[in-house]
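Q: May I have one protein plus its fold?
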Amino acid sequence: MATIEDAPMRLSPAPLEDWLRDYYFTAEIDISSSGVEPYTMAELRAVAGVRHADIDQLVFDDGYSLGRPEVREVIARGFGNGDARRVMTTNGSSEAISLVLSALLSPGEEIVVMQPGYHLLVEYARGLGCRLVTWRLDPANRWRPSLDELDSLVTDRTRAIVVNFPHNPTGATITEPELSRLLAIAENVGAYVLWDAAFNGLVYDTEPLPPVSTRYERGIDFGTFSKGFGLPGLRFGWCVAPPDVLSDCVRIRDYTTLHVAPLIELLALAVLENAEAFLAPRLAQARHNRGLVAEWAAAESGRVSVDLLDGGAATFPRLHGMQSADAFCDDLFNRHSVLVIPGSVFGEPQHVRLGYGGSTADLQRGLERFSTALSEWFS
């Protein structure tokens, strides 16, 4: 008879990806994204100083299991404690997160996850056979995280706490004192803290939070080019973790991707060495666009409730009078060619994810069509 250790991994469908798979490439206007406007290759080369000769000299050899040393070093300086032995480069942060979850967790172990939340941060652990304990963000409290509630959920059985601040899809975040308390809660029971910092640079009225790996021995940070850097198609990410955890990740990776492609790491190194030149313009654009969303929300206050929180490049409006926004989102796409994400993919069907990090012109046109669709819907 098969035991729980023998049971194969079973992953649930990812509703967000299912929705985007159908609509992402055909929408005229996309105001669904949680990231910022993507850069072109020409812009990347100009900002980072990458010459054609640099690319021409590249040899398409195999790469390092943990990543090219120079790339790990610059990540360690910018997103860790300076120790490159604690850094692994990955094919997007999704690979980093899945590798670490697979390395750390065993069937039956208890893990705290956030809801609403990105599917990888929730369902992957379930697929590994873990017992999920939900730390829920309350819309009635403007999605404000409660550290008291987290404290009540964590027990001696808790193997890991998986968090994402600023949060996707709401934009909620925590203060530095709250971060200290969160880490103290974890340390009290010896739990790992897995911190998805994809949106860490996208904050408006506060400073970015420090890496948890610099504050707590069992803190693990994940980073990506897909959000604030405006380079989602480069598929580059990283994690900063204890070396023993990275060793276990390599054992798993030996059966899958092996390493990040040398071309990607060449470009990534150039971007990381000029990080602020990529991040600052897109943060300024998101800040400006956030003001446009605030104006739109005020004009639509009878039909939409919007909480513009402290971080990220997306908000999570509630559409009044709808038990589910799925049909509205479908209609908005089919009749107006505008893409937003229905909140049902995050377990909140009365909401939608509205992104404001992209093109200002697209956002303005998208919000105009959104208002037209609302008028038609409620007429």
Notes: The mean pLDDT is 95. The CA atoms of residues 137 and 175 lie 15 Å apart.
